[in-house]
Design brief:
The protein is 0% helix and 44% strand. It has 133 residues and is mostly beta strands. The protein has a single domain, classed as Rieske [2Fe-2S] iron-sulphur domain (Rieske Iron-sulfur Protein, 3-layer Sandwich), CATH 2.102.10.10.
Length: 133
């Protein structure tokens, strides 16, 4: 299995990357933070940040589209949950890197998530686990 994001990293501390006003609803915005491509998207007023490269074949996810709180890859239609980066629909097998987001004085700040929330077997009640490397 290939994972195009296997060695991705990101800021360990919150880092300002843009302003809230620069993000339109459902717009896919690619930014580079600490030399890493990050995809920002605002859905229902909530800002999400995930890796900007599809783990399957390296497609630029900023050229994809938002579908039901997922980002759909423009090349092979893999879908990744915006909340936790998990694969919702293949052919991708590996999750995307995920970043915690916060707003401070209208500035969007992100940092690499050190814990992942995963779905239980029924798909509800997130369980927090340590991120694997």
């Amino acid at each position: 299995m290939i994972n195009r994001n296997a060695y991705r990293s990101g800021p360990e501390d919150f880092t300002t990357i843009t302003t809230v006003g620069e993000l339109a609803e459902d717009e896919l915005k690619r930014v580079v933070v600490h030399e890493q491509p990050v995809l920002l998207v605002k859905v229902s007023g909530r800002i999400h940040a995930v890796g900007a490269v599809c783990s399957h074949y390296g497609a630029p996810l900023n050229e994809g589209r938002v579908v039901d709180n997922t980002i759909e890859c423009p090349w092979h239609a893999s879908r990744f949950a915006l909340e936790d980066g998990m694969v919702v629909q293949g052919p991708a097998c590996a999750a995307l890197p995920v970043y915690d987001c916060r707003i401070v004085n209208a500035q969007v700040q992100i940092k690499m998530r050190t814990e992942n929330k995963v779905r239980d077997e029924e798909g509800s009640m997130p369980i927090t686990t340590a991120a694997s490397h």
